[in-house]
Amino acid sequence: RLRTMLLAVLSLVAAATALPDCTCGPFSYPNPSAELPPTGYITGMDIPGNDMKPCGPDGCLLPLNSTHSDCQALCTQTAGCNAFAFAPAGCKAPKNNVCWLKSTAASPVPNACRNYQVIRPIMAPLYCALVTKWGSAVSNSSIPLAEYPRPQLTRTLPWRNLNGFWEWTPANPGQAPPFGQTLNQTVLVPFPVEACLSGVWANHQHMFYRKVVSTYPQGRTLLHFGAVDWQTTVYVNGTKMGVHTGGYDAFYFDVTKYAKPGATVELMVQVFDPSDYGQQVFGKQRISAIDSAGGDTYTPSSGIWQTVWLENVPDEYLPAIKILADLSTVTVWANSSANSSAAFIKVTVYDGTSAVVSSQGMSPLKLTVPSPNLWHLHLYCAHMSAQCPSPTTHTHTH
């Protein structure tokens, strides 16, 4: 009897004790632990969670004449299965319905191609995000990754880091950009929205970013994105600048038309990232891994996840350079932004602070390094300047 009373008291204490919030850099989040009760059959929503055997992450293929009841029966017959997700033919497989079995699960997310049902109560995993000492050092008062993001193509003209807080909001498919409106949330760029350091810490397939910035042009002004996952549409003052598809490579737009001296411009970035619900390359990203990580699957990295910056360049500039080196020679290629033609360049190679070789001419330019230091880590610095047809000299350091 005493043991029963003690257990009852402990249960009351546990019920009355709120779980501590999760902290991550400057942010605090409610602890995500919660119980998902049994539900009816819910359409247009998916329930992320671990994908159990025998179906696994690819699901079990069911015949066309099957229904979600067949998926439910499979879950009922499988030890440890507490919920299932069902996709009709044409969504995951062209000629089969597909069934996934779940033992653990997280909060449902919208998905027009999937339906789900919880058949037994599920306790969502109790966890807070793992935060390193570097994550703990992130604060509201400093810009994350404030250094110049492309050290092998450093220019001499001014640039401006746009990392930091942006206005942000989740969106619906097909939703029009909310130009001229303050968005109802903020996000810390350049952390993906699934990262706790973003201030969002949730997966969203559709979203908008907004930032109002002032400009100080010298020559032309470029708006750079280090990487955005996955499909990005960029607007400046309500005008569509272009669309970039791909979550891993850098891209930029020329916004000179809007970057007048002292002008204030509205940047609107629309992002769509279906992660493993889409057919694009997504690597090992899985939405289900957010709450049920395991094996070789990982949390998606949706949205802006590398530095955003404004950069001034001359009216004619070098978009990129290519350097190829072997044991003793360095070959440099550079094209002009005006017509993609080869540029006239001057290249100087330094060993520390001492210049060891210098040459100039039309690209490609080849230099021979005298008595190079071989067979151990020894870095050289290449300084390149390009003389364009205009009197502006454009300088790069590599």
If you had to describe this structure to a student in words, what would you say it looks like?
Helices cover 7% and strands 36% of the residues. With 398 residues, it is mainly beta. Strands 14-13-15-21-18-19 form a six-stranded antiparallel beta sheet, with no helix packed on it. Strands 11-30-29-26-27 form a five-stranded antiparallel beta sheet, with no helix packed on it. It is elongated and about 75 Å long. Residues 1-17 and 389-393 have low confidence and may be disordered.
Summed up, what is this model?
The chain is mainly beta. It has helices at residues 2-16, 68-77, 133-136; strands at residues 22-24, 27-29, 35-36, 45-46, 60-62, 83-87, 97-102, 109-110, 115-118, 122-123, 154-155, 159-161, 164-170, 185-189, 206-214, 220-225, 228-229, 231-236, 239-245, 251-254, 264-272, 303-304, 308-313, 321-325, 329-334, 344-351, 354-362, 365-368, 381-387, 393-397.
The radius of gyration is: 27 Å
Q: Spatial order of the strands in the main sheet?
A: 14-13-15-21-18-19
Number of strands: 30
| Uncertain ranges | 1-17, 389-393
State the separation between the terminal residues, measured CA to CA.
77 Å
Shape: elongated
Mean pLDDT: 85
Helical proportion, percent range: under 10%
Strand content: 35-45%
- Category by helix and strand content: mainly beta
Biggest pleated sheet: 6 strands, antiparallel
Q: So how many helices?
A: 3
